Amino acid sequence: MSNLITRDKKVCWHPFTQHGLESDPLAVVGAKGAQIELEGGRKLIDGISSWWAILHGHGEPTILQAINDQYARLDHVLFAGATHEPAVRLSERLCELAPAGLSRVFFSDDGSTSVEVALKMVIQRWVLRDQPKRHTFLAFEGAYHGDTFGAMSVGDPDPFFASFKPLLFDVRRVGLDKDEAIAALDDLGDEAAGIIVEPRLMGAAGMKIQPDGFLKGLEQAARSRGIPLIADEVFTGFGRTGTLFACEQEEVEPDILCVAKGLTGGLFPLSATLAREDFFAEFLSTDRSRAFFHGHTFTAHPVGCAAALASLDLIAQRDTPQLFERMGQRLLNSLQGLEGNPRVRNLRQLGGMVAFELCGDQPEGYLAMRSQVLRKVAQDNGVLLRPLGDTLYALPPACTTDEELDQIAHALHAMVKADGQG
Ligand SMILES: Cc1ncc(COP(=O)(O)O)c(C=O)c1O
Hints:
alpha/beta, binds pyridoxal-5'-phosphate, four-stranded mixed β-sheet, 2 domains, Aspartate Aminotransferase, domain 2, seven-stranded mixed β-sheet
């Protein structure tokens, strides 16, 4: 066992990891383009963009340059009572690019905090309107919005958040059915606070693609009832689904938009919550108590903002959404041979994402270990992949070459084969 892993095992506590069960972590020493390099020189293709964050590729030179230049100019400064060019410019750019109507940008650090900010904006706005009873959000089965308490509350508690259930606030949760959602809203009546949804593609739910018209239906229902629609594009933003934002696919204009992960190309932690002007206007007052009381030490970190600006330039130059679409189609084509395989169900693609479910009965005890076994098969085939339950998927960065895409498809084929022998 490498020295790094031995030391890690003494002092580190990893996310979403049962240390009593899982195999040793990969000892990673570098990353470039679509590949990560392990101790000893072995390389793996990052088939899931390091938790869906790396947008263009690891070590993208223009983003690194922007980061270095910004560090030399201004490393960090508080964002209360101070401002700086990268934050203002990034806010301007995001408002230009985002669905129409979003004109105010509130920065934070990661996807969970961008969601937390969105929820708090909605709740405080109802309080400012003297409607404090409006505190129940409509959310969806399988949804994942992050790991802080507000984000956990609107996420599906099963199975991950079960321990925290007593402390999570009440949410009305429905399936991916427009009529069911509308009926639930009507039932909530004047307790409805807002709707939160991952537009088009629900990542952690198992790469679920929503039925066509679902998102548009939610927008119409929200608008006609005067309640805000929060679009959580933490995962889907910046081209992943084949359009810059997934909301564009149904011409949806949310009241609030959450972005993170790929915002900086995945090279720096930064997130943003965009709101409509009328939202901001309701907090605007000479009364201090009407201010939005939320903030983090590193809000609008100048280096993160500079990285995001460089990433947005690259997206425009390279037409990243189109690149993802082309990559997704190539992956899908290479996986067509799995159609008709009795172990494989629901092969699908959206933008740069391909997924399918594995089915069939496995010997007892195997299921719990299945994900680990399959991860190992992927690694033995030179690819880093992490199945979500029964869902196998890939979502590599935009720089992935055709040869690397074919290798990812090959690894997925090998996983299906190995599962059949499990
Ligand atoms: C849709 C969505 N929202 C929020 C989050 C939370 O983001 P973070 O892990 O950066 O806190 C995630 C993370 O996967 C996500 O997929």
